Fold:
Amino acid sequence: MPKERNFGLDVLRAIAITLVVLSHITYLFVQESENHFVLLIRTLGAVGVDLFFVLSGFLIGGLLLKDIEKHRYKFSHLITFWKRRWLRTLPNYFLVLFINILLYYIYSEDLVDSLGLYFVFFQNFSGPHPDFFTEAWSLSIEEYAYLILPAVIFFMLFMFKKHQKLMFFWTTFATIFVLFLLKVQFYFEADIASYKDWSAGFRKVVIYRLDAIYLGFILAYLMRQFPEFFKKQKFLFLFFGAFIFIGVHFLIYIRQLQPQTDLGFYVFVYLASISVSLALVFPFAIHMKRSTFFNTLVFFISTRSYAIYLINFSAILLSIQYFIPIDSISIFFKGILCILYLTLTIGLSNVIYVYFEKPILRYRDRIF
Structure:
């Protein structure tokens, strides 16, 4: 593992992608289920994506703060920032998008109507994501998060050159508030009949989820401004994070809260609570010591996590389900399919990382 990598952040990244993959494995056993264990695993899969959001915001916010400290906030610096981000995210995305287009054409001999929107990440900007390459919903949120707030921050720094770090903080805070107003509008206008409606129409929509990433910006600012405080209180933050996370899910279970009956909770409280609880884990994670036993495994999973996320569901799991009637086979053979799914996911993601993603990242670091 390279020394410049933070072990704790790699652990969080590995945990996030593991939760996502485990949640997808449940679809090899049953599509729809009221079983509490299955629902728990799938809920944790959604939490894994939320963890990715906060982690992305924390890392990107930290990079922007470094630029601010070095007075690199001209338009040319913003363009360089975007180019580095695009070389990190776009090549893998478009590679797997084309793989999904090919598979979709093979399986259905047709193409999805909204395909063009995927090339500009607009397929779920203000409405539900189409039923194609469904993992892409989170990539749209990531890409617009990188576009919108950094541009606003650089503009504000250009206009007001004093107190740059405070400008970063208050610009981020103001943006989160504007996004909150969009949630208010959704609350009064939405017609939600089920959890699935809420998830598709709110949880996976760009304009309602950007704040999860921008919370990471706030976290990066606070931990940079008060590093010793967060280091000393890391266990306290970890405790409160666990308390909030467990408490909010316990409340849902005890009160049987559902989006169709408790929309205010799911719009204004639930996702925000999850993001905050995950953010409170970061002070502990940042200061984790490397584990001799887990170093290699954590490094392997975390570096392949982006490729794993993109390839595991639409390209691999749905292909398995297309060729094999899941409902008509025994539990034993479903277990075999799980092994096949994991083998293909890890194998193909490793190929993508080693022969495609890694060379592009080396090229990026060489020219920028």
About this structure: DSSP finds 14 helices and no strands in the chain. Residues 24 and 124 are 21 Å apart (CA to CA). The chain has a mean pLDDT of 95. The longest helix spans residues 331-367.
